[in-house]
């Protein structure tokens, strides 16, 4: 599986904040975020520069599971990049982690569906708003075309309603305009305020 990095840390956001977790960061993403405040994706080495030498490269799924077991964590957080672009490997990974007793969080940009029904405990969906479009770059058109997939988002919300998994919706906020866009998305998908987490783009230092 194409992996960027593996590490142990405390979960820093969302419903599992503070829980000791083993992070599996997959490499490559189908989007290229650059936010209106000027920040690129928070892990540009997985999206804009996936062939960077700092990424781990190909790692066998068995080895990842072994590292998870040795970490002593109960939570496994699969993040990216976009994990769902490696569908087969992701299923194998989730199946192995589940057999090892993991509580699995999958973080996704919500453009692709994953095999969540048997494995994933918490889906963390982070749809990308229009403030993420990298205007003036070669990725502008494909990013704009692919960043929201209502069918996939509805499928995840349905999984939550059918009690197949827990859900959280995370949004990067660049300005007040983003709030209106979130409200419109909420009307189409029907997610609850209780499951929404807003994260500031964070471009100015605190004084
Ligand atoms: S969807 Fe996530 S990983 Fe992909 S470019 Fe945007 S912030 Fe980066």
Descriptive account of the structure:
- The chain has 207 residues and is α/β, with parallel strands linked by helices.
- The protein has a single domain (2-200), classed as Aldolase class I (TIM Barrel, Alpha-Beta Barrel).
- The chain has helices spanning 44-47, 61-71, 87-99, 140-146, 150-161, 177-189, and strands spanning 2-10, 20-26, 57-58, 75-79, 103-108, 122-125, 166-173, 196-200.
- The protein has an eight-stranded mixed sheet, with helices on one face.
- α6 (177-189) links the parallel β7 (166-173) and β8.
- The protein is globular and about 45 Å long.
- The structure holds iron/sulfur cluster.
- Iron/sulfur cluster is lined by residues 29, 31-33, 41-43, 46-47, 80-82, 109, 128.
User: Would you identify the regions where 5 or more consecutive residues have pLDDT less than 50?
Assistant: none
Write down the Rg.
17 Å
- How does the overall form come out from the CA principal axes? globular
For the sheet with most strands, the description reads:
8 strands, mixed
The CATH architecture category equals Alpha-Beta Barrel
Quote the average pLDDT.
Answer: 96
CATH domain class name: Alpha Beta
* Number of E-state strands: 8
CATH topology: TIM Barrel
First and last CA, distance: 42 Å
Strand and helix order: EEHEHEHEEHHEHE
What strand line-up does the widest sheet have? 3-1-2-4-5-6-7-8
Oligomer: single chain
Summing up helix and strand content along with how strands pair, one would put the structural category as: alpha/beta
Bound molecules: iron/sulfur cluster
């Amino acid at each position: 599986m194409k992996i960027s990095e593996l590490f142990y840390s405390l979960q820093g956001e969302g419903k599992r904040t503070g829980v000791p977790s083993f992070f599996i960061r997959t490499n490559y993403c189908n989007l290229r975020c650059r936010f209106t405040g000027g920040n690129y994706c928070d892990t540009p080495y997985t999206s804009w520069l996936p062939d960077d030498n700092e990424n781990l490269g190909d790692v066998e799924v068995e080895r990842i599971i072994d590292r998870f077991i040795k970490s002593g964590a109960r939570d496994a957080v699969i993040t990216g990049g976009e994990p769902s672009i490696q569908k087969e490997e992701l299923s194998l990974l989730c199946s192995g982690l589940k057999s090892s007793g993991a509580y699995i969080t999958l973080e996704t940009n919500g453009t692709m569906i994953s095999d969540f029904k048997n494995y994933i405990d918490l889906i963390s969906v982070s749809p990308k708003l229009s403030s993420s479009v990298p205007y003036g770059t070669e990725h502008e058109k494909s990013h704009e075309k692919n960043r929201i997939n209502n069918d996939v988002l509805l499928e995840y919300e349905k999984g939550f309603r059918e009690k197949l998994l827990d859900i959280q919706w995370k949004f990067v906020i660049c300005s007040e305009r983003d709030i209106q866009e979130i409200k419109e998305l909420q009307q189409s998908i029907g997610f609850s305020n209780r499951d929404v987490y807003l994260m500031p783009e964070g471009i100015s230092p605190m004084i």
